[in-house]
Amino acid sequence: MRLFAFVLGLLLFVPSVFGQNLTEREVLQKLSSESPRARALAAQVELARASALTEGLRPNGALSLSREAAGGVPETYLLYEQPLSITGRRDYLRRSALASADSEGSSVRMQLHELRVAARLAFLELLLAQEQVKAYDAEKARLDEIVDVLRKREKSGESSGYDRIRAEREVSLLEADQGVALARVERARGLLSSFFNPSQRPPALGAAGALTLPDVPALASLTGKITGRGDIEAERRLAESAVLSKEAARRKMYPEPVVSGGLKSPVVDNQREAGYVVSVTLPLPLFDRGKADMARAEASRRAAESRAEMLKVEVEARLRGAWEETQARLRAVESYQKRAVAQTEDLARIARSAYEGGEVGILELLDAFRTQREVRLRIQELIAAARQSALEVERLAGEEVIR
Fold it and tell me: Is 64 inside any structural domain?
């Protein structure tokens, strides 16, 4: 019983140390919690909001202590000076800064969406590479079986050495392709691992799941999501911020007074007297009336609105193109599955029966096997290409729409 528990614990321990297979959903979950880039983007939003809180604050007052002497009469002043924000300009500056921070948040939201799509593409690349390795492994096992049979037949004198040599050469060619496929797995594994914190990366990351065709929503529903994209929303927020900045600049025409008051302590006939001082300072907007700031804010508003419109038009066109491409790829997969896959399975079965019956030679049998392998690899590539195209649709839509 103890031995069984030890072995079971060892089996549970080994996968956690030497490898970890993650589903696509688990990859996205780890991306949110362990991605250095995701954390950097979150910090970027926090910085923007913290910076916005510094705008529009009420100005600090100033306390001054001074001493003067004229005609032998010394005077001491203790004054407090406070600017008065009565025009509402600072409130508009604060609101403008908050709108700018919201723009940064929307922009980061779009960047996080693109990061998730990139992680899904990396997962798909690893999954495809793994499936191709499995196809090569299955084919190699079948060829190894044929080689063993041919060796036995050769020893018993039932066949010549040509068939064995030709089959062994086919195995060598297959092993070369298998090595390339394994290299693709390592490349894809490194790409997917790059999305995670180095301290959290599994030693041998693998993709769990199967290659499946994507379920793509209707084009009309996808087009309606474009206005909610983070980058377009960010431009709208920038335009809003510019409008508020323009109003803040317009209020520079109205001066904000500075009130000061305090104590005055002169010395008269060797006796210290006490009094008070009150003053109001009114800045005159003779030179800076905010016109230059208003013009700059207006130009910023027009630029942001133009960028938002440009993005909307470009994304709509590209989304339509990506959607049509995805539909075409889905039709290609369906057509290929109906024709090539079914026909090739029959071809391999017939070729093997004919070879065993002496009706065809080894070359015809190997050609049928090779054709079957190429068809299996091709259907995997077609399905992966359809998902890649669908994920491009998701990237352009601005939110997760592909399952």
Answer: yes
